Amino acid sequence: MKYLVGIYATTVMVAALCFSMWGQFAYKGFAYNLGRAFVWPAVVFPSFGSFLSGIIWLVVIVAILVLVRRK
Predict the structure, then answer these.
(1) 1 in helix, strand or coil?
(2) Where exactly are the structural domains of the chain?
(3) What's the CA gap between 47 and 52, in Å, rounded?
């Protein structure tokens, strides 16, 4: 698992550098592009972004249902 996190962290840094030097939002600064790089698959592959947002919605809905059921 640590190996996969290391690979992902490396790809995030490479993507952040590429986004901040040659990307569409290169004028915005490194911190902005670092934030975009954390979700770089959604930036590079827009259809994956839709899939990722669907997964996030499911997690939020399940979390709300679990919290409501506890009360």
Answers:
(1) coil
(2) 1-38, 45-71
(3) 9
The model's pTM: 0.61
Chain centroid, CA 64 distance in Å: 22
**Residues 57, 52: Cα–Cα separation, whole Å:** 9
Mean pLDDT computed over 40-56: 81
Residue 1: predicted pLDDT: 79
- Give the pLDDT band (50/70/90) at residue 42: confident
Q: Which of 43, 47, 48 is nearest to 12 (CA)?
A: 43
Tokens 């569409």, residue located: 24
Q: Are 40 and 32 in contact (CB under 8 A)?
A: no
